[in-house]
Amino acid sequence: MDALIIVSGLLLIAVGWLDVFHTLLNPSGRGFLTRGVFAAAWATTRRARRARVLAGPGSMVVVIALWSGLQVVGWALVYLPSIPEGFAYFIDAQGYNPFVEAVYFSTTTLTTLGFGDLVPTASWIRIVAPIQALAGFALLTAAASWFVQMHAALARRRSLALRLTQAREAGFGDVIAQPGSDASTAVILESIAASVATVRVDYLQTSESYYFSEADERASLSAGLHVAWQFALSSSHSADPGVRAAGAVLTAALHDLADCLRSSFLPGDESTPDILGRYSADHVFRHRDRSG
Q1: Which residue in 53, 55, 141, 184 is deepest, having the highest Cβ count within 10 Å?
Q2: Is 112 left (phi over 0), alpha (psi -120 to 50) or beta?
Q3: Could you tell me which of 191, 228, 235, 212 has the C-alpha nearest to residue 282?
Q4: Secondary structure class of 118 (helix, strand, coil)
Q5: Angle between the N-to-C axes of helices 123-169 and 183-205, in degrees from 0 to 180, rounded to the nearest 10
């Protein structure tokens, strides 16, 4: 029975770290527990725009709590068969529940608090406990790194959305197909294409960023991708070959992004404009033509 308890604890520990690995280190960036939490929160807030804005940040907090809980309970099960024989108590331990004691020691060890009222005396626990403390420090570092990764991905997405909104408001779409369009127009189109490609990479490596909705429509890429598609269509009618080439690059970038959305978040066989429309609908915003 003791062996079964220890094996169960080790499995919980492994499941937690496997999810951390797939979320932060695997190039696909898809932790199975993490993805499930985000998808559930996204589905739950589908009809509530204000709540949907909190779905992403709230899911991050839940996932980090889940990672921590798996480690605390997993290590507690590893220690449980050795309570109380494997520890020295510096308080009156009469009446304490063994599982509660195991959770208490696991929590203080994982967080490196170490109050000193419960000290391991078994040799193997004296060796294992510092390893758990190192795991706790690694978990804290992983959580902080995840916040940094997510913030960077969201900043790039919002930057592209604002740039598209500003270009639309400045009438850039009308300039593209005019006979006077020149190299500067091609440069702008190419820079937008590069930003779209970066967002595609972010959705592959930080897939949880999909589940963040913006309160500000101007900073919402879901409300701006149709603008990029209009720019790409307009460029195909330009008399300048450089503008047409830049537009073709933007079109290819949008097709790649649509393929990424289709394979990871919005399964179906629709065309790129339809996928972009579903993406906008999934993020609450609906396309409204406000050009000019």
Answers
A1: 55
A2: left
A3: 212
A4: strand
A5: 150
* Cβ pair 256, 274 in contact under 8 A: no
Tell me what pLDDT residue 93 has. 65
Task: Please state the pTM of the whole predicted model.
Answer: 0.86
Q: Which helix (H) or strand (E) holds 151?
A: helix 123-169
What is the arithmetic mean of pLDDT over 237-254?
Answer: 92
Cα dist from 140 to 35, 65, 291, whole Å: 20, 11, 46
User: Which amino acid makes up residue 162?
Assistant: L
Residue with the two structure tokens 């309570």: 83
Q: Which of 214, 203, 213 is nearest to 263 (CA)?
A: 203
**Start-to-end CA span in the chain (Å):** 73
Q: Is 119 helix (H, G, I), strand (E, B) or coil?
A: strand
Q: How far apart are CA 68 and CA 88, in angstroms?
A: 26
- Which positions ≥6 away from 3 have C-beta within 8 Å? none
**What is the Cα–Cα distance from 26 to 28, expressed in whole angstroms?**
5
Is the distance from CB of 15 to CB of 75 less than 8 angstroms? no
Nearest-5° Cα angle at 226, 220 to 229: 130
- The H-or-E segment that residue 89 falls in is strand 87-89
| Cα–Cα dist 42/59, whole Å | 9
Cis, peptide link before residue 84, omega less than 30° from 0: yes
Amino acid at the residue 170: A
Instruction: Map 201-254 to HEC letters.
Output: HHHHHCHHHHHCCCCCHHHCHHHCHHHHHHHHHHHCCCCCHHHHHHHHHHHHHH
DSSP category for residue 102: H
